[in-house]
Amino acid sequence: MKPVRTPEDHMRLLEEIGSLIDAAPGSPEADRLEVLAVLAAEYERRSLPEESDPVELLGLVMRGRGLSQAELSEVLGSRARASEILSRRRSLSAEMIERLSRAWSIPRRLLAASPSPAVRARRIGTALSILIGGVSLAATAAVAPFVVYGRDLPDIAPLVAQGARADVAGLPPHVVQAFVAAEDRRFLSHGGYDPAAMVRAGSHDLANIGGHPQGGATLTQQLLKNSLLSGEPKSLRRKIREILLARQLEGRLSKDQILRLYLSRVYFGGGAYGLESASRLYFGRAPAQLSVGQAAYLAALVDAPTLRRFDLPANRERAFETRKLVLARMEDAGFLTPASASAAARERLW
pTM score > 0.85 for this model? Predict the structure, then answer.
């Protein structure tokens, strides 16, 4: 696939996305559509102005979700306000921006922008081309995800309630670091999704069709996929919904709470769901008692539990190799010294 470096490349990408829009979920065409959308989003993030037109954005969101002016009036608390905003006789106040952001999950910075006419035309053209195509290209921050896939999102309130009760203490740092290094190295700094990881994974998958795919999903996205979106097939729609929900969840829970929720639900093979069950199944001990080598092994297990279970003799060599990979990532991230990583790699697993 050619890199997307120029406006012409971007337009060609839009055309191909339009031709793939009706691809069946799970098909090779749908997988390619997902990759192309992420690549287009990354180009837009790099190349399009950060400014947007708030009124145009608001209108697109309302049309895409089937929202009426009456519903806008309800959010803003006044029919006159809604009419004046849509007719451009009044600007959005800080209070209005806060209400709209909370009610309709629109980024505050997009609602607060004051673009020049030239910038406004450029952003509107992009947004409309996306809306007409019926698919979100700007998965990282632009208009279309909210227009096309922001309808009927699952309620995150039950997950937030569980996260608020999560015990965020008790795990040794090396256990947490193993999972962060293995699954989501930028977990502590991103806002729920990682565009660079998605582009990297998509490029890998296109170059290695038929091989083991790289997901590019953050820990937050994986948690949502395995809880609120577990019944949805793999598709661009689900990926964008993961991103939208991840942004919401990161605004309601701490990183520690999200990580503990993730670790309580993820599958480790052998019928073990959650770190507590996996730790006792494979090592006969509580997670707080895991060594560095054991924690790295469990972190490596998540991506392909059936293929990496060391209790199955045919998998033992693969189990050691994948654990070494996680330890190398922990060292590269600064979580381990070379000496401690080497010592952990020599630990026996059985």
Answer: no
